[in-house]
Amino acid sequence: MIYLDNAATTFPKPKEVYDFMDSFYRNHGVNPGRSGFDAAIETEDMVMETRRMLTKLFNGDDPNRLTFSYNASDSLNMVLQGLPETGDHVVTTFLEHNSVLRPLHHQEMEGVIEVTHVKFDENGFVHPDAIQQAIKSNTKMVVVNHSSNVIGTIQPLAEIGKICRENGVCFVVDASQSAGMIPIDIKKMNIDVVCFTGHKSLMGPTGIGGSYVREGIELKQTRFGGTGVRSIIKTHLEEFPYRLECGTLNIVGVAGLHAGVKWVNEKGIENLHKKEMDLWVKLKTGLQNINGVITYCANRTVDQNPVLCFNIKGFEAADVGTMLDVDYDIAVRTGLHCAPKVHEALGTINLHGAVRMSIGPFNTDEDIETAIEAVREIARIRK
User: Fold this and answer.
1) Could you give all domains of the chain from N- to C-terminal order, each with its CATH number?
2) What is the DSSP string of 100-120?
3) Could you tell me the pTM of the whole model?
């Protein structure tokens, strides 16, 4: 199989990730922070070291404010429900994934908040001035997708963050597609909260993610449970990391994330991104030279991640995906990609979305050449 669905989850993972998950869980698959025996202490040490690694990755200060969750959607739900209060206004964009759109929509539907969605330009970028213009006196937060999972464009976080800080507005970043792919500096970018998932460019397994919450940003708690600490207290602990963590952590997931982050650091984020973008340029050029193929927001090679969406005239996106799978053994993603407003802006809603090819660290030149030729053959038989 030629796997070109890395924006959904990177596959395969590095061998180091599989090996560490297996060995660690076999020898340390116990509950951290609950007991004083050696295995429990060593497990807690690994969890804390992973907090430190990720805190350093985002240039944070306090590893305790790096909390784990199931994935970015889980963390975004806690943040987006924990920050605003009744009557607040939230600014977000047309680039967002449903992990942002849906939590905000539910609160808006219930009359808790008001939401403004800022559009992106013809190249797929949100202008900071548009964010500035959308901010009102009761704006509580701005939520921005760092890199689109549909078109791969990387948004100008530093400029948007500066506007948010100057206006006293909390800046929340969805880094699902960028953590491990693009450097993120919460200080230079004035980010207040960054939410990430482990199973994409951080090269960890599914079922693990988290957030880093800057000092001074407090979230009301939306879930409660055991922490293994001060069990006599009736209320859930308010300090981090317990504030956003309840119950037993996904230890094997944290172990996989630990190994994934180490692998990314050893390879170098910039090196990995350059290799994948070289392949993306080859894919973009090849597809754009095929008669009948339409690509979306794929004109620039800067501020871009290796994600490319396209359609073939005369075909449903889903049918192209099926042919790529059945006839060529190429795995892609079709449809609306959990980001309906992106497709609304692109004009692909009525086409039922688009075909997405997303490149990962283990793809090769041969993979891309095969994919281009497969699309060329399919386009030849279009109506």
Assistant:
1) 2-11+268-380 (3.90.1150.10), 15-266 (3.40.640.10)
2) HHHHHHHHHHTTSEEEEEE--
3) 0.95
